[in-house]
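Researcher: Quick test of sequence recovery. Tokens follow.
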């Protein structure tokens, strides 16, 4: 029988004390919770923030008063300290930890995603606890995921998780900011997405993290689109057991009742297009209305220096993006064919299904900038 696979993300606010550094007691609680969840029979992948916070004090830096380069330096110092602290916390529990540092590059190309999935599977099979974080030290803007809520959601998609738990310092998602509005009400279950829900998320939260309720809501939307239930809850003893047993803890975002294939969810949210194909009217209509595969004669032009296997956008002659797909030929081969236009038609792109197509405009209040 397949074991339940759970991605647990813990934010900086759940690890950092009043002095701005990571507290051993808070980190130990997270380790105990993750170990207890694993003892129940689940496979656990832990996405942990806190590297920057752990590296500030050793470098004599203060939270909120650092340059980008200093933040990267703090991440370089703090990541080692963070993983060592997890190693010391998990060691008495008989669990070895494994550091996994990711950037968008590992999550945006099909071959890299396959290698990542295989590596994570091997770690879980051999009993290690993956400690996943974004590689803040070297990730340039074009390769940054941006926040660990989004990282955790994309990891849940590519790793085939059954459940995503986002642990924070607030006991769920509220209709207003509970720190500012005395009448704020916690939403126990979210079944549908509305602009009002997005508006209630507010702005980024703690000064030591990069996220907030807005990024958590976006993460929940990504995960639930792939069929993964998502829970936002406060970091406290017993919380993961209660979530697993279905108790009314935190806010549970129900998975989409008819989720698309995870590859298509990844294609929409995780992949970054490397180029664009301009389609003639007939091909554009076939892609939109019949979800047809794209043949070479339907391509009028191509842009970008993409390779075979890269994700590309499909657009009309008016340059309106109607879908994304995986290129079966590189840009150079396509340009050569377009220059000659006398070769037999061959399949050029595998097209995503209509329900996960990326249209030129998104719904109001979507708030999803990823991908």
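Model:
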């Amino acid at each position: 029988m397949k074991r339940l696979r759970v991605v647990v993300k813990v934010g900086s606010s759940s690890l950092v004390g009043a002095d701005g550094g990571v507290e051993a007691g808070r980190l130990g609680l997270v380790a105990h919770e993750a170990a207890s969840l694993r003892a129940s029979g689940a496979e656990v992948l832990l996405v942990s923030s806190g590297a920057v916070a752990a590296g500030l004090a050793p470098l004599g830096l203060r939270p909120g008063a650092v340059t980008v380069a200093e933040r990267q330096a703090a991440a370089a110092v703090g990541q080692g300290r963070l993983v060592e602290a997890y190693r010391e916390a998990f060691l008495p529990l008989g669990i070895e930890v494994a550091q996994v540092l990711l950037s968008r590059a590992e999550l945006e190309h099909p071959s890299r995603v396959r290698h990542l999935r295989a590596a994570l599977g091997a770690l879980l099979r051999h009993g290690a606890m993956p400690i996943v974080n974004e590689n803040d030290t070297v990730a340039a803007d074009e390769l940054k995921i941006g926040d660990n809520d989004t990282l955790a959601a994309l990891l849940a998609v590519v790793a085939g998780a059954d459940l995503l738990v986002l642990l924070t310092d607030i006991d769920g998602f509220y209709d207003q900011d509970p720190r500012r509005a005395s009448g704020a009400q916690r939403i126990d279950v979210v079944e549908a997405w509305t602009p009002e829900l997005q508006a209630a998320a507010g702005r980024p939260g703690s000064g030591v993290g990069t996220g907030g309720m807005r990024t958590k809501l976006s993460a929940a939307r990504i995960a639930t689109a792939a069929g993964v239930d998502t829970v936002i809850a406060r970091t406290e003893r017993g919380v993961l057991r209660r979530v697993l047993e279905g108790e009314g803890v935190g806010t549970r975002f129900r998975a989409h009742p008819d989720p698309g294939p995870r590859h298509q969810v990844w294609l929409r949210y995780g992949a970054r297009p490397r180029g664009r194909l301009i389609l003639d009217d007939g091909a554009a209509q076939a892609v939109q209305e019949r979800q047809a595969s794209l043949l070479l004669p339907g391509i009028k032009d191509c842009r970008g220096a993409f390779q075979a296997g890269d994700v590309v956008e499909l657009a009309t002659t008016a340059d309106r993006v109607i879908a994304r797909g995986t290129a079966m030929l590189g840009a150079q081969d396509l340009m050569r064919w377009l220059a000659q236009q006398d070769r037999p038609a061959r399949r050029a792109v595998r097209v995503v299904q209509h329900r996960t197509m990326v249209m030129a405009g998104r719904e109001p209040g979507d708030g999803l900038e990823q991908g």
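DSSP finds twelve helices and 16 strands in the chain.
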